[in-house]
Amino acid sequence: QVQLVESGGGLVQAGGSLRLSCAASGSILSINTMAWYRQAPGKERELVATITSGGSTNYADSMKGRFTISRDNAKNTVYLQMNSLKPEDTAVYYCNANVRYATNSIPKVRTYWGQGTQVTVSS
After folding, report:
1. Which of 30, 82, 98, 123 is 20 to 30 A removed from 70 (C-alpha atoms)?
2. Three-state DSSP class for 61?
3. Does residue 88 sit in helix, strand or coil?
4. What is the pLDDT of residues 79-93, one digit of tens each?
5. Are 111 and 63 in contact (CB under 8 A)?
6. What φ, ψ does residue 32 adopt, rounded to 5°?
7. Percentage of residues in the chain with pLDDT exceeding 70?
8. Is the CB of residue 95 less than 8 Å from the CB of residue 113?
9. Beta carbons within 10 angstroms of residue 88's beta carbon
10. pLDDT-derived band of residue 104, with 50, 70 and 90 as boundaries?
């Protein structure tokens, strides 16, 4: 089994910064694309950013220039540095990982989600 555990959320004033982390653990052989999503109250979950195993990144337009996704493959961890935060960034942030793992020595691929971490930006 594989688990994703997020940390780093909290309350911050507008214009401030936060850094989220998400660590994957378990019977991991490798991790392909990792990503961050967010879901604000009353809204659908939306993509924030993605990063491939080779380090290629992609961002939602509203996050470009303010958010930076990165990863440490040795630690199976993905990060999200969020700067110039706005009240509209308030949401639960979820990490997502496409993981190649082994069960009874049989390799499989599955996408996993973390439990989410709350980010609240006050005006």
Report:
1. 123
2. helix
3. helix
4. 999 999 999 999 999
5. no
6. -85, -120
7. 100
8. yes
9. 11
10. confident
Rounded alpha-carbon distances, angstroms, from residue 37 to 42, 66, 68, 74, 123: 15, 15, 13, 23, 22
Going from the C-alpha of 36 to that of each of 30, 60, 61, the distances in angstroms are: 18, 10, 14
Residue corresponding to tokens 């700067």: 83
What local confidence, expressed as pLDDT, does residue 102 receive? 84
Nearest by Cα to 47 from 26, 33, 27: 33
Residue 116, both tokens: 């989410």
Instruction: Assess contact for 28 and 101: CB atoms under 8 A.
Output: yes
63: left (phi over 0), alpha (psi -120 to 50) or beta: alpha
